[in-house]
Amino acid sequence: MELTLLGTGSPAGLPRPDCPCAMCAAARGPRARAATALLVDGALLLDLTPGAALAAARAGHSLVGVKQVLLTHPHDGPAVDVPAGLPSAGRVPDGRVLTLISGHRVRAVPMDHPGTGYEVTSPDGERLLYLPPGGAPAGLAEGLAAYEMVVADVVGRPDAIALLRASGAIGATTDVIAVHLDHDVPGGPELDRRLAAAGARAVPDGTTLIVGEYHAVPDVPRRTLITGGARSGKSVEAERRLTAFPDVLYVATGGGRTGDAEWADRVALHRERRPASWRTAESCDLVPLLTEEGPPLLIDCLSLWLTDAMDRVGAWDDDTWRSGGERALRERVAELIGAVRRSPRTVVAVTNEAGSGVVPATASGRRFRDELGRLNAACADECEQVLLVVAGQALVLRN
After folding, report:
1. Mean pLDDT along residues 324-351
2. In what order do the strands lie in the sheet with 393-398?
């Protein structure tokens, strides 16, 4: 089954008309994207967008052989002129199956958002799932057969990708293509990096893909360390990396603090950001969690784990530190780093960047700074990817 993406942008396109934002200003040339539309085997057009005939011609195709035009979502703005010879556009009722004269079978998939998804099966049995902007499948059962390709709003609805993974509809070899791309995410390398973290990729307008043809699925780093200063956006970056995966275990090493309203507000903010399907464990006992099999692990954060570890060995007191506290802390850190090295799980760990500011005034403060620097370096050595987040921007230190 041959799929040509006539457009890969949001319904308003990219750049948006008259939008002065930085992302739209940079969306020129190959980074410009027309509204998403798919041409399947020259016989089926999914979503009719302005300039579809011209886009097909630029991609080396024609709409002359199109037998069916289907819409996935309500189209705002002025009516789109239907090119001469094309059948009228329509939508298939949820759950209904439409068989085309070309031999393709199209099943309408119910969404949790206004619109309709389409499962397209070729005469040879390859299966493609296409989802509308802002939509996720509703009422998915588990144990579904994996699609060869999923074309969806990965950036806007990463939870839809998580649902499809949980049900089995996205498997290890499913090619996930991001479309409906808007100006809320930087293009170029940053877009590629974010999509790769979700096991997806983007392609330019006019690209033709073969559904079912082998294509290397982007590698999701098994261990990632994310560091940065206070309020740099490092926790948001960590959460973003796992929103396309189901059953994440979020490990909060800070726990609760009785009577501290400001800390309670911080904890509540983090909980509100997390997907409802994620589980939370408040614990500094990380080694057993890292050692056992299980879903992806998000640890936030290692600096609070170190605070707890130094509390347990009495490392804040100079005499205790010299008489055995240092050795005890080294053993705890070595045990943690060994667990990170051997962990069978996907792990994303957050830590604080220390040492770039004012030298702490106390010996215990300098000790914490030094030990956190050593812990960060040791953990980074065991991670496939290391990111530094500054002002909300992720800089790749190791990939």
Report:
1. 96
2. 279-282, 249-252, 297-300, 347-352, 223-228, 385-390, 393-398
Q: What is the DSSP letter of 14?
A: B
Nearest-Å Rg of the Cα atoms of the chain is 25
Helix axes 189-197, 234-242, angle to 10 degrees: 60
DSSP reduced 3-state for 108: strand
Whole-angstrom distance, CA of residue 229 vs CA of residue 218:
29
DSSP run (H or E) holding 385: strand 385-390
- List, for residues 232-255, the tens digit of each pLDDT value: 999 999 999 999 998 899 999 975
Residues in the chain: 399
Model confidence pLDDT, tens digit, residues 78-134:
666 777 778 988 999 999 999 999 999 999 999 998 899 999 999 999 999 999 999
**Longest Cα separation, the chain:** 87
User: Angle, nearest 10°, between helix axes 261-273 and 234-242?
Assistant: 30
Between CA 326 and CA 266 the distance in angstroms is 32
Q: Which helix (H) or strand (E) holds 338?
A: helix 326-342
Task: Take residue 234 and report the two structure tokens written for it.
Answer: 């490092």
Is residue 40 within 8 Å of residue 120, measured between CB atoms? Answer: yes
Per-residue model confidence as pLDDT tens digits over 260-317: 666 556 656 666 666 778 999 999 999 999 999 999 999 999 999 999 999 999 999 9
Element (H, E) at 238: helix 234-242
Active-site residues, by number, are 270
Neighbours of 38 (CB within 10 A): 24
Is residue 3 within 8 A of residue 59, CB to CB? The reply is: no
CB neighbours of 140 closer than 8 A, spacing ≥ 6? Answer: 163, 164, 166, 167, 169
Sorting pLDDT into bands at 50, 70 and 90, what band is 361?
confident
Stated pTM of the model: 0.89
Mean pLDDT of 335-352: 97
Burial of 167 (0-12, 13-18, 19+ CB in 10 A): middle
Provide the pairing of β-strand 175-178 with 223-228: unpaired
Residue 10: pLDDT over 90? yes
- Report residue 77: phi and psi, to 5°: 85, -170
Do residues 384 and 398 make contact, with C-beta atoms less than 8 angstroms apart? yes
